[in-house]
Give the backbone structure.
Amino acid sequence: MALYYDEVFEDSVRFGVKVERTLHSEQSRFQKVEVLETTRFGRMLVIDGLFMTSEKDEFFYHELLVQPAMCTVAKPKDVLIIGGGDGGSAREVLRHQDVERCVLIEIDEAVVRASKEWLPTIGSAWDDPRLDTRFDDGVAFVKEREGAAFDVILVDGSDPVGPAEVLFSEEFFRGCQRLLKPGGALALQSESPVYFRDTFVETQKKLGGIFQTVRPYFGPVPIYSGGVWSWTLCADSVDPLTPVDARVEAMTGGSQIYNADIHRAVFALPNYLRRAIAAG
Ligand code: SPD
C-alpha cells in the first residue's frame, strides 16, 4: 500500500505526499527533523510535521524570499538570514557578487546537518567563504546586537506556532529595523494568505506601524498549504516598486522564476487582500 505523509492544517485540511522512504528522522533539542524521499518532489525537509522545502519545488520559495529584497537594495554587502537552515536562502544571497558577508543564524544545528547530508542541491553554497553559519537563537541575536550592520535581513522561519511564533512579534521586527543600514530592507515569509489570513493581516499591521514602506507579495509554493504563499518586504528609504530592472536582469541567468516582470508582478495585491488589510 502507498505510504503518504500528510501535513494537517488545524484538523480541517490535509495535504499528503507519497513517500518512498524516510532518509532521516531525529528529535533534536528543538523539534522533529525529517528528510523524506518523496515520489513527486524528490527529497523533502519536514519539521514538526510541517513541509519546509523540497528538491523539486524549493526555488519557488527561496527565489521569492530573497531576490526582491536583494535587488531592491543597491549593492547589498552585508546580509543576515534568521533561520534558513536548509541553505536555500543563503545560496540565493550568495549569487550576488556584491555580497561580502552573509551571516546565517540557525537555532538548530540538526537542520543544517541533515540538510548538508541529504539536500546538497538546495544548500549548494555552504562552502562559500562569505557565509558565516552560526548556531544560535536569531531572536536573541537581533535583540542584543548593536548598530546598523546589515543591508538586507531575511527571515526564513517556520510557521508561527511554537518556537517560530516570536519571529512574528513587533519587538523582533523593531530589532530588525534597528540592525538595518540606511537604504536597507527586511524580507520575511508572511504565511498563506488563504489558510493563515489572520496571521498575514496582523503581520502587515505590525510592520505598517514600524516601517515606512511595507509591500506584501505573493507566489506559488506547491508544497505549502493552499499552494499560494506570501512574503513581505519592508524598508524605510527604498521601495521595491521603484524600477530595479537592470539589477534584476543581472540576476536572472541562474533563476528559475525571478526576472524583472516577476519583480513587478508579485507586488500586485488582489482585492480580497486589499480589503482584509484595510479592515485589519
Ligand atoms: N508552511 C511552511 C512555512 C515554512 C517557511 N520556511 C521554509 C524554510 C525553507 N527554507
